[in-house]
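=== Structure Prediction Worksheet ===
Name of assembly: unnamed complex
Input type: mixed (protein and possibly other molecules)
Chain count: two
Listed entries:
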Amino acid sequence: MPEIERADAIVDRITKAIGLGLLKVGERLPPEAALSEMFGVGGATLREALGDLRERGIVETRRGRSGGTFVVSQPRTQTDTIRDWFLSTSISEIRDIGDEHSAIAATTVRLACERAEAHDVDRLQELARALVLASTPELRAPADSRFHIELAVAAQSPRLANAEIRLQEETVQQLWTPLTVAFDPEQATAEHLELVRAVAQDQPEKAQKLVLEHIRRNIFHLIDTKLTLGYAARSIQDGQ
Amino acid sequence: MKPATEVVHAADALTSWISGVAMETQKLSRSVASLLEHKLAGKSKIDKAALVGLDELSREFLTKNTFAVGAGTFFATESVEEGGRPWEWWSRKESGAIGRLDFDLTPGSSRYYNYEKLPFFSTAASTGEQTFWGPYVDYLGFEEYILTFAAPFSVHGNFAGVAGCDIRIKDLEPLIMPSLRAIPGDAALINASNRVVLGNSGRYLVGERIKSGSPDQHRLDLDVPHLGLSLIYTP
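=== Predicted Assembly ===
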């Protein structure tokens, strides 16, 4: 492994250990020599990893007799990052993501109707089922985005596929991370399967209608989550 | 049917906030007019010297009114001397620093910002009253999704331009959403062209146009002169 990747791997292991409670805030890490040996890396790589953790504010190195490297804060989890996304993204921006996604997906699915072959349809069907088979939210997000990206692949358009990849990266974790009400994989799968049928039967009007409704429902879920996280209960009297 | 107490409260809160912005805008407009009248004295056209001091008014406005992302003045072209700059618009940058916004005002150029045709200017010019325009994508202007409050002013009795401020839609949301969320059903603030400025649920999404005719849809006009704003709600 190149040095930089090794340093990343160490950062990852230490972060996970803190996340799992194996290392607690306030605890001192073993001395550098011991850590080097534990991870099987040279001193330079280890110092690079510790430097990265320091920059992220997870550890702090103190000098002196009672010095050493200490864990000073919990690393941010994915859920924290996603909650921050909801708090910092406005409803108008979420609506706008949906607008762009609708434009991309409508053309993608129409082209897929014209251009997909039998084996594309089989693959899409398999990917649609993979979503309901995914057992955790962490697995549902990639299963969902994979299905949509493969639609663009079946449409034979690298540019639409790239646009779809970008849009999926922007929102799929937000959709499936259960912050308030969990998103239902069975309904999403049923919608995906219905889309595959429309593609298989070359029904572009129907496929477009289905994909637009599908995206609208996703966006509504994101907006509901935003309203719940950002503006709490409706019983609050005007907060101005 | 009388609107529910929550709706009345929300309408009052919205009216009071929006009136506040409208009053600040008018105050800016009056300050701009009096500064220009003073600077121009006998001259008929606005020249470079007359613009001195307008930047300070924009800065003061933005420092005081943190909800606004931009503030300043657009002049009617006929009131400005040949070759003069017909605007003085300042905006808050990402860093928080306040800087002048530049526009391309060369007719025929591909980035020509024809502000005199934009409703915040043209409506204020034709009616002589303050305007509320938005939400709109201010392409070639501030280039974000915003709304604009503008108030016309005259110099020596002639319409000379508008002073106003821009508010980002994303900045507006946290300011007025609490009022809308206090309404139990679906509700939205809508502008004079039935476009949603902000709604309290997915039913009314910002930017969408409301089709009237739904029997369960009620409307309460907000008491802010000339802006044409209303609150719609489904009990």
